[in-house]
Amino acid sequence: GDLSFPKIGLDICTRCRRCTVECPFGAIDEDKDDYPLVNPTRCRRCGTCMGACPVRTISFDNYNIQMISEMINAVEVPDEFEEKPRILVLACENDACPAIDMAGIKRAQYSAHVRIIPVRCLGSVSMLWVSDALSRGFDGIMLMGCKSGDDYQCHFVKGSGIAEERMANIGETLESMMLERERVTSAEVSIADSGSVAKVLDDFVAKLGELDPNPFKGF
Ligand code: SF4
Ligand code: SF4
């Protein structure tokens, strides 16, 4: 795995403190000029700071905003004449991905229109990925991660919860793009949910089927 700690490009850092506030482990201090300073003895490399940064100036050696953006851009999105939807799932590599893999081993079938990209933790998901995918014509996006709340199962304590909070803001993005709120959703799965994960995906695909194709297709 990637053992690097987050690198913060201070040249464009606005000292907004989002990374400090959202870090689940209190691993970001501030230097004398109020710039963020990662404390490697506390950092667990969850990537939540990366997902939080509004100017996208936080990265890891093998995990960064651009890398996932390129993976999203590499997914083929059928045009509006093909009448095939394309659904993006950003899945937490800790629980959601193993549950999906296990479903595959058990030969559970789910919609062939789904494309899955693993992420380190849902806390690391940048809303830029979501808005970019929508403007590329993806019909729906699901963030699939661990259980949040008091009985959380998130390996990084509050990554799923933070993603939920950020999801609330995506409503404004959808509205500004004149897209339906139902196009972006989240799902909580545990590693033991391999029996139900295919249904979770298919239910979302069916719900999207009630909407028209994303009008951004082909642009
Ligand atoms: S990677 Fe996670 S633990 Fe480390 S500084 Fe960023 S938010 Fe905190
Ligand atoms: S979230 Fe980004 S811009 Fe804000 S303080 Fe942290 S590194 Fe700087």
Describe this structure in words.
The protein is an alpha/beta fold and 219 residues long. The chain folds into 2 domains: 7-59, 2-Layer Sandwich (Alpha-Beta Plaits); 65-208, Rossmann fold (3-Layer(aba) Sandwich), CATH 3.40.50. Helices cover 32% and strands 15% of the residues. The chain has 7 helices and 8 strands, in the order βαββαβαβαβαβαβα. Strands 6-5-7-8 form a 4-stranded parallel sheet, sandwiched between helices. Strands 1-4 form a two-stranded antiparallel sheet. α6 links the parallel β7 and β8. α3 (65-74) runs parallel beside α5 (127-136). It is globular. The site of one iron/sulfur cluster has 13 residues, from α2. Residues 8, 13-19, 36, 52-53, 55, 57-58 line the site of one iron/sulfur cluster.
* Average pLDDT score: 90
The total count of strands amounts to 8
Tell the overall outline. Answer: globular
Helicity range of the residues? Answer: 25-40%
Write the layout of secondary structure elements.
Blueprint: E1 7-8, H1 18-22, E2 28-30, E3 36-38, H2 48-52, E4 58-59, H3 65-74, E5 87-92, H4 96-105, E6 114-119, H5 127-136, E7 140-145, H6 159-176, E8 184-188, H7 197-208
Parallel strand pairs: 5-6, 5-7, 7-8
Antiparallel strand pairs: 1-4, 2-3
Helix pairs in contact: 3-5
This protein binds iron/sulfur cluster (2 copies).
